[in-house]
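Deliverable D5.2: sample structural annotation.
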Amino acid sequence: MFKKILVLAPHTDDGEFGCGGFMARLVEQGAEVCYAAFSSAEKSLPPGVHPDTLKNELNDAMDSLGIANKNRFIYDYSVRDFPEHRQALLEDMVALKDRIEPDLVLMPCFNDTHQDHLTIAQEGFRAFKDRTILGYEIPWNNKTFNTESFVLLEEKHIQAKVWALKRYRSQLDRFYANEEFIRALAKTRGTQIGAAFAEAFEVIRWVIR
């Protein structure tokens, strides 16, 4: 159904958390998946860790998911400062739109309380309002989340998501960065539609061509 997909990740691993299983399924089906991370969150790294750590871990995760080097875009916006750079972020997104011409955009939902995530959602809608847009789920940030669309996943897709997130070795101490949580959420979303596993999305815009 979708041939060119663009994932908008405020920070390096947000896309994998929000839609890593769907990304794995799309790659398996032969779609071209592109990934744009707008910050490598250097300020959030532990003291003494090399500033390029998250960029390197992102590339390891993309290798794991089978996303081509030419389809990876990493920007250097400072974490937690996105609201101050709305116009520049919008211009970067418009440039991505012209370059990639995606027919599906995956991004944070509008109920994400992190200021960087919300900015990407708001400016992402402005840039891609003529495309189909789905908002992905980041449970620890979401005030609410409307499960309006579901993507059925198999065990292999969940395992691919787990493997990709394990590449972020510098982030594994976070309470939600573990296989148990990832599988539990996928089972919960699958249960809602009578399936083994799923990822849920908010429908921000649906364009039928």
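Annotation notes: The helical segments are 14-28, 53-65, 86-100, 115-128, 155-166, 179-192. Residues 4-205 form a domain with the Rossmann fold fold (CATH 3.40.50.10320).
The annotation will be released with the project's public dataset once the embargo ends.
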